[in-house]
Design goal:
This protein is of the alpha+beta class. It is built from 9 helices and 16 strands. It is 24% helix and 28% strand. α2 packs across α3 and α3 packs antiparallel against α9. The longest helix has 19 residues. Bound molecules: adenosine-5'-diphosphate and manganese (II) ion (3 copies). It comes from Sinorhizobium chiapasense.
């Protein structure tokens, strides 16, 4: 028997953006545990905005499991928060009731800033560094500093060792801003991995005295880019059947549901989706081939392939909840008729 360190991780009840929380319990297993072997656990919901002090127990239900490469015999356990009966999802549980479909593939491009001493890493104490231009995909100390790349590489290695499906990393347009991409088949699988990668990044940067700023427009109304979390998506039907008529019907459905999408695409998005810095205004839906100023960018490959493949919704922001984003995308897609259903309630 081996003693495993099980880190139960969950989303708290803060709004509009939940925080990640985690605590450890030690349990003995013959071998690395399976999800089914992990017990329910509890926590004090009155400390996380999830319960009143009088009756404060909330239940943690394990829903995904990853090896924790940083800890000896470590296990990362993604959990849903349940009511004391262990069966009813807590109101803060944004995962339990989302649409899911393993034929629906999602690629999230998570952008974020490193922050130190209340400003982006690499910004001088007063004023600003040289304007944007050389930082995106840049190299060299003057562009990326001396520590950011080390953290980004370490984070990538930890995530890969945990089995998280990273697809890439790059330095972003603003100084101190970076991106990682995560791809997954099924909304829950992809979104669990985004949350776990966020957790691992925040935990990793503790020892550097650096925080992650997830806000979509941390530098306000300036010429500095905001942070998005573009959502690339495809269903089996989009990849295998597609066609121009279906694509146009799909875009019409996205236009109809504009407000439903914006409602779950992350807070303060009106500060970011202004029409500047490769964004489309939040209150106007548009799409275009290879158009980085559109709400939905249509890759060249999509058109060249007979309107088949994936699309990129550029509106979700860096603080958006990937469960809710993926689910809304599937919800809108499910309103467009096809031969056969593309989404089902999980
Ligand atoms: P860009 O910065 O040019 O918008 P990235 O390379 O950062 O593009 O991100 C593209 C994303 O698209 C990746 O996360 C990738 O996993 C995702 N992707 C690629 N093919 C598909 C597909 N068929 N369905 C869904 N997502 C996809
Ligand atoms: Mn990208
Ligand atoms: Mn980007
Ligand atoms: Mn993108």
């Amino acid at each position: 028997m081996t003693k495993y360190k099980l880190e139960y991780i969950w989303l708290d009840g803060y709004t509009p953006v939940p925080n990640l929380r985690g605590k450890t319990q030690i349990k003995e297993f013959d071998a690395f545990p399976t999800l089914e072997q992990l017990p329910l656990w509890g926590f004090d919901g009155s400390s996380t905005m999830q319960a009143e002090g009088r009756s404060s127990d909330c239940v943690l239900k394990p829903v995904a499991i990853y090896p924790d490469p940083v800890r000896t015999n470590g296990v990362l356990v993604m959990c849903e928060v349940m009511m004391p009966d262990g069966k009813t999802p807590h109101p803060s549980n944004s995962r339990a009731t989302i649409l899911d479909d393993e034929g629906a593939w999602f690629g999230f491009e998570q952008e974020y800033f490193f922050y130190k001493d209340g400003r982006p890493l690499g910004f001088p104490e007063h004023g600003y560094p040289a304007p944007q231009g050389p930082y995106y995909t840049g190299v060299g100390y003057k562009n990326v500093g001396d520590i950011a790349r080390q953290i980004v590489e370490e984070h990538l290695d930890i995530c890969l060792a945990a089995g998280i499906n990273h697809e890439g990393i790059n330095a972003e347009v603003a100084k101190g801003q970076w991106e990682f991409q995560i791809f997954g088949k099924g909304s829950k699988k992809a979104a669990d991995e985004v949350w776990m990668a966020r957790y691992l990044l925040q935990r990793l940067t503790e020892k550097y005295g650096i925080d992650i700023e997830w806000h979509c427009k941390p530098l306000g109304d300036t010429d500095w880019n905001g942070s998005g979390m573009h959502c690339n998506f495809s269903t089996a039907y989009m990849r295998e059947v597609g066609g121009k008529d279906y694509f146009e019907a799909l875009m019409a459905a996205f236009e109809t549901n504009l407000h439903e999408h914006i409602a779950v695409y992350g807070p303060d998005n009106h500060l970011r989706l202004t029409g500047k810095h490769e964004t489309a205004p939040w209150n106007k839906f548009s799409y275009g081939v290879a158009d980085r100023g559109a709400s939905i960018r249509v890759p060249h490959s999509f058109v060249n392939n007979g309107y088949k493949g994936y699309l990129e919704d550029r509106r979700p922001n860096s603080q958006g909840c990937p469960y809710q984003i993926a689910s809304q995308v599937l919800k809108t897609i499910s309103t467009v008729p096809t031969e056969g259903s593309v989404a089902k309630v999980a």
